[in-house]
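New to this. Explain these tokens.
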Amino acid sequence: MTMDMISAILVSGLVLGSVYALMASGLSLVWTTLGIFNFAHGSLMALGAYFAWTMSDAAGLNLWLGAGVAIAVAGMVGVGILIERTVIRPFYDDKDILLITVMTTLAVMIFLEKGIQFMWGARLKQLEPLVPGQVNLIGTTISAQEALIIVLAPLLLGALWAFLRYSNTGRGIRAVGQNPAAAKLIGVDVSKLFILTFALSAALAGLTGILLGSVRFITPTFGAEPLVKALIIVIFGGLGSLSGTIAAAYIIGVVEAALIFFVGIYWAPSMLFALLIAVLMLRPQGLFGKTVR
């Protein structure tokens, strides 16, 4: 293997890992705080990309791209709040909330995918890149948009980590994730933090779709594959561990890039699932998860 091959795999892995980290962090945040998997997360990613396209493309409202991105992210916050209030909140006190929300969020996923197809059609669309041109990174040429993803993802994830660790609201979200009943007893507004968590997760999903929408074509099922990868990453890194999820995203990204290079794009997903099974056989709590006694 030459150095050019190694650098190409590493750069490709960084791009994939950055996208997966943004996607999986929102999914992990909802799981850690609310204790549910949001299977509509991939559809929210696609919806964010379509919102941005509508605002910024010449065939849409033809606004400045930055304004389109800001409006799209704000719109995703609203969509996240709407989903939490309508299909999640009514079941908080139900002992089968995990199973129920699997069904309700799957229903939202189907509704959003069909709604996107109805509103925007099935034709492929693509966003203008936020940063045009190409750059050279450790001997490999990539688009400037992909370089932006590599740089922006750690900054956003670092800001999320700092928010959760140092702000009063972030500490409240962590407290709710550890013990909602105890958090409520000490005066934490659990309901408000549930809404905020879901809104933040939807914003992350929408922003991921916007960043990826100028690299890949946008379709109504645009977020289906990243959702599957995000689920693998959340379990692989350890349920309830945001830092483990982020680390696992970059590991999976590099591994997938290597698998695509050596075994091809069609075999890579099955090999990833085989890796997940192997890890769970050795560490059922995930690679970075902690054993709960």
Remarks:
- The chain has a mean pLDDT of 88.
- The beta strands are 134-137, 140-143.
